[in-house]
Amino acid sequence: AALTVRFLTRRFIGEYGDMEFIYSHNLTVDGREILLHIWDVPSSQLAEEGSSEEKRIQWADSFVLVYSICDRASFNILPLKIQFIKAAKEGQSQEKVPIVIVGNKRDLHHQRVVSSEEGRLLALSSDCGFYEVSAAE
Fold it and tell me: pLDDT tens track of the chain, all 137 residues?
């Protein structure tokens, strides 16, 4: 949620509840107006399997999977999520589904438990994009 709000408003808010939101945002890219719809789902709700997660996957055209570099569990769940997304989306068509893996909290490097190299290797082996960022900075 912090990363989504930072992207949409350029402000950082550190504390969020465990709520799911859909945001709409206009963006100009290469002179073209684009309307984004962002379905922000807390990690606690990503643990659910079944119809609600499948509904989210079918709804989306692309995916940004965010983990905390300070939380090994948030990183460890990503390979299953990527596999689930690819099976649901790519099984229907031959098109590659755009997925980006984002390691957040880069500013908390002293609390890091997931190395940058681990994130890069997961992205490379899963054919995903990769970034490390800090929503706070």
Answer: 677 777 777 777 766 666 667 778 888 989 999 888 787 776 554 545 555 667 777 778 889 999 999 999 999 999 999 998 898 887 666 678 899 999 999 999 999 999 999 999 999 999 999 999 998 88
* Residue reference for tokens 């709700």: 45
Pair 36, 24: CB distance under 8 Å: yes
**List of domains in the chain:** 1-132 (3.40.50.300)
- Rounded CA-CA distance 14/3 in Å is 10
Q: Rounded to two decimals, what is the model's pTM?
A: 0.80
- Residue 94 dihedral angles phi and psi, to the nearest 5°: -90, 0
30 backbone φψ class: left, alpha, beta (φ>0; ψ -120 to 50): left
CA torsion, points 15, 7, 57, 53, in degrees to nearest 10?
A: 0
| Distance separating alpha carbons of residues 98 and 63, to the nearest angstrom | 6
Q: Which residues pair with 131 in a beta bridge?
A: 102
- Tell which residue, 103, 38, 100, has the closest CA to residue 67: 103
